[in-house]
């Protein structure tokens, strides 16, 4: 009796090792099936009781499975697959339009942009800071790329550039505002007006409130005498 129970597939005392070693398979004609579906159909027609027991066992195993706590299969696949790119006809998603929790230099720069205050921007040259622009900021980003308007630029050219002024920096010797020599003509300062210009953030060294503002407005905008630095 115990031996028969150990060879019963549906018994709790089922012993797979005993079946592999002791079971004698009768030499009968073997059926070849093209697929699992064909084999299931054969079992259903020849041994319906066995099929019913297998179905009950499958339902019992599925009920005992613990619910998955991780993401679903669809969620995992969506994370693995690449997202579809934006079509050229689709509008660009606007970001940070209503963001008001900016802190530090970005917040101060945003206040100057919204209120139309003039700032002074220091730009680096090849070896040193050689350009200063007083202008109003139209737009900026987190990389310190600036779009400015109504800018007055003061530029200290290198020695080799003193005699090679570009068309946008023509020196008018009769006008002191356009060109002025200092310290016995050892330092030359070029000036020009910029209606609109784009400044790369890589060239920005320092941004501070323009000293041309009145003292009252200066204290109102920058009560702690703050300035913005880009390294």
TrEMBL record:
Query: What domain of life does the UniProt record list for this protein's source?
Result: Eukaryota
SUPFAM superfamilies in UniProt? Sm-like ribonucleoproteins
The GO cellular component terms are: U7 snRNP
Q: Name the GO terms of the biological process aspect.
A: mRNA 3'-end processing by stem-loop binding and cleavage
**Which InterPro entries does the record match to this protein?**
Lsm11, LSM_dom_sf
State the Gene Ontology terms under molecular function: U7 snRNA binding
Q: What is this protein called?
A: LSM domain-containing protein
Originating organism:
Onchocerca volvulus
Q: What phylogenetic lineage does the species belong to?
A: Eukaryota, Metazoa, Ecdysozoa, Nematoda, Chromadorea
